[in-house]
Design goal:
alpha+beta; about 25% strand; six-stranded mixed beta sheet; 7 helices
Length: about 260
């Protein structure tokens, strides 16, 4: 009897309405994923037509930012979640619609859009506080069942995770404090399964600047991840990026987990 796997995709769409112009709904139907997690949706559901709120009959959970046209996350699943939780119960983060948790039989799926530290590093403190808060939240969940954390972490962890590391050590997303937290997070019991399975692989990115020619030359960063609890590591059968899919400055990332 063939083992069943769940196909999970995560994508920072940089605007849910904007990505529709690139055939998003048709792409979603074609992919036949079990769960799709979106970040930076920049929309509230009352601004959408019904077929975009629950596309193709998926169970849809939304967590929009209070500020219009900003941040927000959404999760679509074939299977109805056992439970849904919006946010971290910390107002300064939850007002921005950054974390959405859906519970399934085998694991919690946490869909997260980490803050950007900003070019002048003005939000670095806010981001690091968010990082501490979400780690505590994940550990609390993990005491009940394993966790998958997917989304845009806005952190390139190691030099291998971006094309031009030497010129970016003072750039948001590759700051020492951000990278140090990522190391701490992984040492706390979560696994970057892509890097585990591809320890020396270069050129695998999930974000590119919109500047002309950058994506074509693959001058990118790997800042979108699936990380999993140690109990799930051996059940991950496939993981990677999908740079051939356009519509955002990020590309989708995917993972398959053996049920």
């Amino acid at each position: 009897m063939k083992s069943k796997t769940s196909h999970l995709i995560s994508w920072n769409v940089n605007g849910y309405r904007a990505v529709q112009k690139s055939g998003f709904v048709d792409w979603m139907k074609k992919e036949k994923m079990d769960v799709l997690s979106l970040q930076e949706i920049k929309v509230k559901i009352d601004q959408l037509e019904p077929e975009l709120v629950t596309p193709h009959g998926y169970h849809a959970t939304w967590f929009s930012a209070e500020k219009p046209g900003y941040s927000g996350v959404a999760t679509f699943s074939k299977e109805k979640p056992l439970s849904v939780k919006q946010g971290l119960e910390i107002p300064e983060f939850d007002l921005e619609g950054r974390v959405l948790t859906t519970e399934f039989d085998a694991y919690y799926l946490v869909n997260a859009y980490f803050p950007n530290s900003q070019r002048d590093h003005a939000r670095l403190g806010y981001k690091l506080n968010f990082c501490e808060a979400i780690l505590k939240f994940l550990k609390k969940l993990e005491s009940k069942k394993p966790v998958v954390l997917c989304g845009d972490y806005n952190i390139a962890h190691e030099e291998i995770d971006l094309m031009n590391p030497k010129s970016n050590h003072k750039t948001a997303g590759f700051l020492p404090e951000e990278r140090q937290w990522m190391s701490h997070y992984l040492k706390s019991g979560f696994c970057d399964v892509f890097r585990q399975q591809n320890p020396g692989a270069t050129g695998h990115y999930s974000w590119w600047s919109y500047r002309p020619g950058v994506r074509e030359k693959n001058i990118g960063w790997r800042i979108d991840y699936h990380t999993v609890s140690e109990d799930l590591v051996n059940r991950v059968k496939k993981i990677g990026q999908r740079p051939e899919i356009f519509g955002s400055d990020h590309c989708p990332i995917e993972i398959e987990i053996l049920n």
